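R.M. (postdoc): so does anyone remember the format we settled on? I'll just put the structure tokens first.
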């Protein structure tokens, strides 16, 4: 099959499956709910939806703990619903991207159930085991969701390794039989007609726990190239790997234009600039804005012509961007549009996270209203360590993953139109004003701004091809850059702050057409709070 790189012109929409639309009143989003909302997505203009995992799962980590890769969890519907979704989306030129969780399975996966019974069972080696004494793990490595990364299994008198929760045992990619089994599963999904895959924590599959190596293990790219050859390259897919540990050099390998690995990775360099150096995301620090421009600019330059970027502010693991680096008070809509302008002028494939196109905000709940395993473990762990509760809650309100996981706000009706029952997690109380129905009725809404940006990206090649050049690099409020091709120029100018911003720039930059802007009140050498625009010549 010819590989067309269609994803270079695409915009992808991430659906957090359990929070998008419930269709049967059990309070949990499902596949029929997504089908019901396809027209809304088509109207926005997106090319593909990425579904967070809908496979059979005990839901210890909301589906990122899979117990059957070739079945749909009854909570989300059936395989027939999945096939219907692929068909119905296809009719609207929307491809369906599945989330592949290949670093670990659920501890309830049949492989693991067998693996933990006996050391000689063939599935035993599908996981990462080490000998040891009960109570004395092989080493001091910690799991991402708290506690030791090692769990004792008395039946085999060994520890298994888990980088995430105890219910997410790590798969052993050193084992060729496991790899082949995974490739068969991927090909099976390809035959179902999916448009691509998002690969969960893919840079952590080649772990070497004895050397404390988790991300970017020595055999990582060997495994990725093998998988790509055996699966993805047989189709015309988009593949995007989640890679917290990627620098531009690593990302160039992952996204090499020869197509030998993946289409692109999610890189997180720009997402860690509001935490204390050396700390965790919970250790809050103000955003270093100049650094943000430098980091995003570096990725633009270093991947130009030799790799491909993903562009995102949000996902199901990150707080809502308008609350994080915009303003979720009086400038909510204005700053949401500004953030979109800054990102959508860049080179790469943009990802919209559900509700971002409405300017949805963080939730500020009491601890008992949260559901996320990471957040709840963090709360317990930090209180035990003696952190004041107030400080822990401040971190949770700023960075907790449930900020992004509250139900999609469709209308000002009961439960925001998400469910006719009790939602699995509370709806953000601002749904009475922030919702899709209101946005669709207002020509000035964030929704229509995103719609326009998406259309512009399809209309002008410069969004795909232009070379990036930073402008006003050290300015403390303004984010500005130029994209150039031989004939054309795109100039993006935005005020990232809630106060006026002064600047001096050659008038020449403002020549041509203003493609889009969020404020009709133009002034010379001054930007209004959160004002943003794009000029094209
Ligand atoms: C990724 C997912 C996250 C999940 C983790 C473990 O980071 O995005 O939601 O908890 O991997 O699978
Ligand atoms: Ca449901």
């Amino acid at each position: 099959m010819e590989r067309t790189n269609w994803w270079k012109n695409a915009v992808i929409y991430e659906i957090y499956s359990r929070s998008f639309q419930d269709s049967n009143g059990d309070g949990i989003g499902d596949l029929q709910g997504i089908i019901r909302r396809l027209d809304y997505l088509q109207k926005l203009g997106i090319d593909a939806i990425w579904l967070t995992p809908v496979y059979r799962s005990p839901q210890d980590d909301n589906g990122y703990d899979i117990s059957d890769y070739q079945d749909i969890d009854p909570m989300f519907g059936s395989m027939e619903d999945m096939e219907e979704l692929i068909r119905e989306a296809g009719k609207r030129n929307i491809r369906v991207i599945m989330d592949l969780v290949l670093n670990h399975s659920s501890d309830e996966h049949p492989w693991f159930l067998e693996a933990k019974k006996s050391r000689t069972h063939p599935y035993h080696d599908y996981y990462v085991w080490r000998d040891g004494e009960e109570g004395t793990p092989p080493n001091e490595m910690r799991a991402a969701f708290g506690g030791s990364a090692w769990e004792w299994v008395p039946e085999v008198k060994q520890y298994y390794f888990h980088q995430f929760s105890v219910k997410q045992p790590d798969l052993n990619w050193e084992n060729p039989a496991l790899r082949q089994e995974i490739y068969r599963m991927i090909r099976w999904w390809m035959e179902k007609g999916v448009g691509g895959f998002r690969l969960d924590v893919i840079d952590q599959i080649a772990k070497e726990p004895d050397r404390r190596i988790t991300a970017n293990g020595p055999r990582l790219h060997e495994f990725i190239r093998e998988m790509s050859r055996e699966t993805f390259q047989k189709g015309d897919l988009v593949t995007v790997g989640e890679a917290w540990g990627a620098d531009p050099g690593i990302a160039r390998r992952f996204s090499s234009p020869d197509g030998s690995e993946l289409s692109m990775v999610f890189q997180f360099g720009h997402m860690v600039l509001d935490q204390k150096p050396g700390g965790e995301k919970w250790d809050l620090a103000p955003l270093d804005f100049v650094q943000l421009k430098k980091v995003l600019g570096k990725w633009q330059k270093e991947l130009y012509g030799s790799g491909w970027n993903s562009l995102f502010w949000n996902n199901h693991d990150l707080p809502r961007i308008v609350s994080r680096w915009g303003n979720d008070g009086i400038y909510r809509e204005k700053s949401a549009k500004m953030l979109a302008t800054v990102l959508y002028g860049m080179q790469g494939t943009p990802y919209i996270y559900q509700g971002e196109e409405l300017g949805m905000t963080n939730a500020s709940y009491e601890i008992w209203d949260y559901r996320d395993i990471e957040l709840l473990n963090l709360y317990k762990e930090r209180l035990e360590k003696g952190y004041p509760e107030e400080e822990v809650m401040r971190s949770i309100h700023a960075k907790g993953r449930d900020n992004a996981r509250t139900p999609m706000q469709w209308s000002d009706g009961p439960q925001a139109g998400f469910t006719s029952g009790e939602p699995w997690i509370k709806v953000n109380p601002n749904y009475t004003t922030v919702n899709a129905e209101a946005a669709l009725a207002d020509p000035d809404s964030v929704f229509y701004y995103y719609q326009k940006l998406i259309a512009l990206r399809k209309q002008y090649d410069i969004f795909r091809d232009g070379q990036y050049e930073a402008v006003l690099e050290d300015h403390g409020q303004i984010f500005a850059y130029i994209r150039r091709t031989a004939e054309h120029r795109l100039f993006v100018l935005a005020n990232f702050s809630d106060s006026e911003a002064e600047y001096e720039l050659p008038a020449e930059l403002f020549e041509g057409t203003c493609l889009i802007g969020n404020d009709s009140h133009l002034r010379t050498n001054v930007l209004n709070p959160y004002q943003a625009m794009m000029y094209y010549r």
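R.M.: ...and that's the designed sequence above, right after the tokens. Also worth knowing: The chain has 15 helices and 20 strands. Residues 22-24, 26, 28, 30 surround calcium ion (ligand 2) (CB under 6 Å).
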